[in-house]
Design a protein that fits this description.
- The protein has three helices and three strands; from the N terminus they run βαβαβα.
- By secondary structure, it is α/β, with parallel strands linked by helices.
- It has one domain: 3-Layer(aba) Sandwich (Rossmann fold).
- β1, α1 and β2 form a beta-alpha-beta unit.
- The radius of gyration is 13 Å and the shape is globular.
Length: about 100
């Protein structure tokens, strides 16, 4: 998303940010399936991050390569360091998009 113009071709239509243990097998899997059925290319991280590890460069790149980000807040979203890092990067990309 940084330094993007309206004509930028994005790898994903939507990046889903969610707390896996809360929503992966319920809401998120149903949402992702419904979006894909409608031709909306969605990035959903299927890896489980080990406690204390940082967000991966590939995940940050997926945020940058998505046209939109959808943040799914849940009971323990804010207690996840990884989720908060994703959210901070989403906000950073959005700000950079509007200042370029």
């Amino acid at each position: 998303m940084p330094h993007a113009s309206s004509s930028k071709v994005c790898k994903y239509d939507i990046f889903l940010s969610f707390r896996g243990e809360d929503t992966r097998r319920t809401f998120v899997s149903h949402l992702c399936k419904a979006l894909e059925q409608r031709g909306i290319h969605t990035f959903k991280d299927d890896e489980r991050l080990e406690a204390g590890k940082s967000i991966s460069a590939e995940l940050l790149k997926a945020i940058e390569d998505a046209r939109f980000a959808v943040v799914i807040f849940s009971k323990s979203y804010a207690s996840s360091r990884w989720c908060l890092e994703e959210l901070a990067h989403i906000i950073k990309c959005k700000k950079e998009l509007h200042t370029s």
